[in-house]
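Batch manifest, entry 17 of 40.
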Amino acid sequence: MERFMAWMTDSFSPRINKIAKNPWIAAIQDSILAAMPMVFIGSFATILSIVKDFWEGFPDFSMISSFSFGLFSLFLAYLIPEAIMKRKGHTEVSKQAGLAGIAFFLLLVFPQFTAEGMIQFDFNTLGTGGMIAALFSGLFVGFIMNLFSKWKFIGEDSAIPDFVAVWFNTLIPIIVILLIGWLFTFQLEISLYSVVNSIFAPLIHLGQGFWGFVIIFFIGFAFLYTFGISTWVIYPVQSAIALPAIAENQANFAAGQEVTNIFTAEAGQLFLIGGGGATLALCIMLAFMAKSQRLKMIGKASLIPSVFNINEPIVFGAPIAFNPILMIPMWINGLVGPILTWIVLKVGLVPIPHEPFQLWYLPGPILNWLVTASITGLIYFFVIFAASWVIYYPFFKIYDKQAIEQDKELLEEGE
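Output type: structure tokens
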């Protein structure tokens, strides 16, 4: 273990830090961190909504989540190009880049106009469903604005006021951006949201096999998530396989026949401890073992949501997304969880779920016991938790050490 930790510290960490410091990747991280308050608000609103499932008279707080984290992609569409301009040293046009980002993003998600002149959006595209479109639009707008920043109508030595110079210097790049969005949506009639779903459609054909179970859960709940892309992007693919499967399991169980379909949403809940990538273990480490006060604060703030399997605060707050040090253990857990779950369900150590159960926000031990209706399902929770702890621990130590150094640098800069 000491050799491994030394290699992680002296060799692995310095190399991947070069990737993390890339201005384009760093800009995405900056943007996600800037939007974190909206993530926390949405997460706690979701937890409050749990009460309504058991008490009908309790107020419905879902709209608070819808207009906080539910608009996350829209926020990113502004923040990413703004952050890119700042990282590239073009602060004077950063806000204009952000505004162009919003306009381009809203074009890409394929708005519809009614005969009465009303505009309609699929609300999912403004939140988790539009994450890819937001990343694409933000990076594209940042690229165009950065490219045109080299050519200016009005130079810095002009007598014209700076804010007026910015107006004219950003006209052409913004026009180019909007023309491309107009061409993409209203002339070619291409919806990026639909294109994303069609890209993942072939995964449906993987069906109920081992590789289908492992690959789809890995891609949707670990790999894409570490790039800031919500798990809801792959939900149409997952549900197309999982919903008919659990219905068949339910019918077979009622008829006294063998239950065989492993690919169900209920089976996936068995290893999503704390959320995709089994991040509860990492959250506990940050909250109670981190020496960096910043990480400790993030861990404690994310702990309650993590217990209820809501891990947006830690994924975007630690962050895990676009952070190579924490992305890798999340990938490993994203593979280990489905593989172990497939094995224990296939050989019968844990019963295959046979009843629809979508209360994914229940704490792990309770959830596993209810989904499998067995003690072995409850025991399996602790097996997965222990495995995730072992996987995250060495990477946590590396990141904590790095965070301490960053905290010191920020403190020195502030003095």
